[in-house]
Design brief:
- Helix content is 28%, strand content 35%.
- 29% of the residues are buried.
- It is built from four helices and eight strands, in the order ββαββαβαβββα.
- By secondary structure, the chain is an alpha+beta fold.
- It has a five-stranded antiparallel beta sheet, sandwiched between helices. A three-stranded antiparallel beta sheet has the order 1-7-8, covered by helices on one side.
- The chain starts with a strand and ends in a 5-residue tail after the last helix.
- The longest helix is centred in the middle third of the chain and has 14 residues.
Length: 160
């Protein structure tokens, strides 16, 4: 077995959701979830099929995001993984619905940070072991940092 890291491409002003699923129907279900929650979201999604023809299945309402999602799926190349790239929306508004999708097994990350995917490769194929999401902490927040965080969350409407 060989371990590799795969750097994902996240376009500017976009967010990424990386997960694992188990069925070809996921592509259509995730598409329906995304458009059902927000008419504003622009997204592309790609799913690595793990049996049969083993194709990368895709769907989107934004061809550019779809192309990058497919590129990321090709780079990861792990069966039953999926990549969603979105603009004009945040993963927090979609995660519960995505996790409730019957085919979805797990979410590895939801972020706008740089992401490296840790992949194991064997003779059979590839699997995701985990992710490196962003950077290591540089310290512990101060009282001023706490106030800044609380103010920001209220400014963007996530806290009253």
């Amino acid at each position: 077995m060989e371990l590799k890291t795969v750097q994902l491409d996240i376009p500017e002003d976009s967010n990424l959701i990386l997960g694992q699923t188990h069925f070809i129907k996921t592509v259509e279900d995730l598409y329906e979830i995304l458009v059902g929650i927000s008419s504003q979201v622009k997204f592309g999604l790609a799913f690595c099929e793990a049996s049969g023809p083993c194709l990368i299945r895709k769907a989107s309402n934004d061809p550019t995001l779809e192309a990058v999602a497919v590129k990321n799926a090709q780079a990861i190349a792990a069966g039953h993984s999926f990549v969603i790239l979105m603009k004009d929306a945040y993963p927090i508004n979609f995660l519960n619905a995505i996790k409730q999708c019957p085919e979805v097994c797990s979410i590895y990350c939801a972020t706008a940070n740089p992401v490296e995917v840790i992949v194991a490769e064997s003779e059979q194929g590839r699997g995701i072991l985990g992710v490196i999401d962003g950077f290591s902490p540089k310290g512990v927040e101060t009282d001023k940092d706490i106030q800044t965080r609380q103010t920001f969350l209220r400014q963007i409407g996530y806290k009253c």
